[in-house]
Specification:
This protein is an all-alpha fold. It contains 20 helices and no strands. The chain has helices spanning about 1-10, 20-40, 40-55, 60-70, 75-85, 95-110, 115-125, 130-145, 150-160, 165-175, 180-190, 200-210, 215-225, 230-245, 245-260, 265-280, 280-290, 295-315, 315-330, 335-350. Helix 1 (about 1-10) runs parallel beside helix 3, helix 15 (about 245-260) packs antiparallel against helix 16 and helix 16 (about 265-280) runs antiparallel to helix 17. The chain starts with a helix and ends with a helix.
């Protein structure tokens, strides 16, 4: 499939100097890349944007698109290079430059180039209008640099601009990553002061209670959301039950989620986690296999990681090592799996 798509991209402009209407072909390639990116087909999209760069069609936008795809694929160094190329193009509008700078700062944060990331955030603050996303990103980078007051100020601005459940959870998770859970919990508590108005609100409140490990209230809110027709609530109910080691009810929720969700990959991953908890490793591999075809990049990352875990738990270290290598080909910046691969190499007795 990959080769077929690449062939189509290359063939589309093969006769660009011979055929009239080449401009329309170039436009189609760019539009297809945008469509692929929107659908989560990031590698196909990246190839399409590369073709658009070669065609000199919307070059800055094409570099930007390739950068976003690389960012989503975890290829952070490539993403930074694409975004830098985009910024170096001629006639980049101020709004586009602001957008690209934000993406480059995010890629630099992931690559742990914190000084570079903060420099881009400072440029955003000095030369452009800040919004909730840029305040949040700046706070996250400042926190990683141990600039706690600066982080707190930016997170406060982010939440003031966007007082949603999602934003509260994002800030909480940023603090949690730095073992500063108490600083993030106040945002969760603030989000809960908002009264639920619909099924989505009940689901969001359930998520917040889940992160606070208040499983009784999480269950109550998520059941209400589910009763009002929110399918996503079933996924979080499964997570709540699993956190309480109630594998039977967790499995039931994941199965219900798979039956009703447009994209069931997360549900299959949940089932695989239930299987792993019960030592049913063959079933876990089956559920992982079932989840992969419809998975987004993020969902694929979880599924492939758990696939490696299954083989390791079966003491099949050779296959686990192979899976770790395959995983890192797709997500090369995952330091956790890099460490795990080194451990597996010691068990297999190889340094290859």
């Amino acid at each position: 499939m990959k080769n077929k798509r690449v062939s189509w991209i290359l063939a589309a402009c093969a006769g660009m100097f011979l055929l009239s209407g080449c401009g329309s072909e170039k436009q189609k390639i760019f539009q297809q890349a945008e469509k692929d990116m929107a659908q989560g087909s990031y590698e196909y999209a990246r190839q399409g944007f590369e073709a658009s760069v070669s065609n000199e069609w919307k070059v800055a936008e094409s570099y930007r698109g390739a950068g976003i795809c690389s960012l989503r694929l975890g290829n952070y160094e490539d993403a930074i290079a694409y975004f830098t190329n985009a910024l170096n193009c001629e006639k980049v509008s101020k709004s586009l430059a602001r957008d690209i700078l934000s993406y480059r700062a995010a890629a630099q944060w992931h690559a742990r180039l914190l000084d570079d990331a903060m420099a881009d955030c400072q440029t955003l603050a000095e030369d452009y209008t800040m919004d909730a996303d840029t305040y949040y990103l700046t706070g996250k980078i400042a926190l990683a640099m141990d600039s706690y007051d600066e982080a707190a100020s930016n997170f406060s601005q982010a939440y003031e601009e966007d007082s949603t459940y999602d934003r509260a959870i994002e800030i909480y998770e940023a603090y949690l990553e730095q073992d500063m859970e108490a600083d993030g919990t106040k945002y969760l508590e603030a989000a809960l002061t908002t009264e639920a108005k619909d099924a989505e609100d009940y689901c969001d409140r359930g998520r917040v209670y889940y992160y606070m490990e208040d499983y009784a209230n999480a269950q109550k809110e998520l059941i209400e959301a589910s009763n009002k027709g929110n399918t996503e609530a079933l996924m979080y109910l499964g997570m709540v039950y699993q956190a309480q080691n109630d594998i039977s009810n967790a499995r039931s929720m994941y199965q219900d989620y798979i039956s009703g969700a447009d994209s069931p990959a997360k549900g299959y991953n949940g089932l695989a986690l239930c299987d792993i908890a019960e030592g049913n490793y063959a079933d876990a591999l089956t559920n992982i296999s079932n989840g992969l075809p419809a998975a987004t990049t993020e969902e694929m990352q979880d599924l492939l990681y758990n696939e490696m875990v299954v083989y390791e738990k079966q003491l099949d270290f050779a296959t686990a090592l192979q899976k770790a290598r395959e995983y890192l080909e797709i997500f090369p910046e995952d330091e956790k799996v890099e460490r795990e691969m080194k451990f597996l190499q010691t068990r297999v007795g190889t340094t290859q």
